[in-house]
Amino acid sequence: MFSNTEIGIDLGTANVLVYTKNKGIILNEPSVVAVNTKTNQVLAVGAEAKSMIGKTPGNIVAVRPLRDGVIADFDITSQLLKEIMKKAGKTIGFALRKPDVVVCTPSGATSVERRAIHDAVKACGAKNVHLIEEPVAAAIGADLPVEEPVANVIVDIGGGTTEVAIISYGGVVTSNTVRVGGDLLDDNIIQHVRKNYNLLIGERTAEQIKIEIGYALIEHQEKKMDVRGRDLVTGLPQTVTLSSLEIQNALKESLLHILEAIRATLENSPAELSGDIVDRGVVLTGGSSLLNGFQEWLSKEIIVPVHIAPNPLESVAIGTGRSLKFINKLQKAAT
Q1: Last residue of one domain, picked from the residues 218, 250, 282
Q2: pTM of the prediction?
Q3: Number of folded domains in the chain?
Q4: Where are the alpha helices (DSSP H) in 93-202?
Q5: pLDDT per residue over 56-102, tens digit each?
Q6: Could you tell me the residue range of the domain that residue 222 belongs to?
Q7: Are strands 6-11 and 100-105 parallel, antiparallel or unpaired?
């Protein structure tokens, strides 16, 4: 029972999710680590560390060790993984004894970055570590028939990157990765508010604005929202009212980048698979695919059906765990 534990890890820029065969998603924590800069000691990980962002004394920083879907700080990522594995062990009810682990990697990751992810997980006590490409994991998690020779188009909009891939017969036929994701959309909002209102807002506030009044490029009933931040002129707290139309405008450029990546991938599709795409359409996964009006806007632009996966936030983690069933077949397709 102990040696045969199988877990899937979605090592995302914004969140780390852990999936087990018997219990489904057992852990969903933000990819944030709070570190004491004087002693290099890790003080908190996950939700606890995220609540500290922008609210800590000078010697404690809340950092995200994963940027654009890849490891930016190896040591801190190792610490994050150790804590995640510990928490997962407690949730399952026993210490994880040498589990088999499947971790997803961005399809644009270099061999060095893949090795870093492999080594970080291995260092946490995993028996075997398999790597699977993120779009393939997302497609499996979205219940697409990845083993069959039909076109499955997946658009995975994560925290750091958007990955667009056409998957057929267990492998990626063509793919594109752009470094546009939820984080960049938040940053667009921060810069817009700073430039137009001389107001400084934090990442969490920007994310709240995106969720409540962020819209893809569609016509909609205007919404308004009061936002608090620090006035850059006086240095005092200040409240301003933002409109969904100006936020839509602030997000426009980034959304067009995503559209460009989708179009480029579809243009590179083999002729035989293009027919499948017209019938089957495109499936959206990842948290940012839930942006208001995104599905409607995309289907107008690319003129094929656009579907949202059953659990867009968890698709990659679910697919990572499920992929153990046919990991050998997938690896054969990849080699």
Answers
A1: 250
A2: 0.84
A3: 3
A4: 111-122, 134-141, 182-197
A5: 787 888 888 887 767 788 788 888 888 888 888 777 765 556 788 88
A6: 182-250
A7: parallel
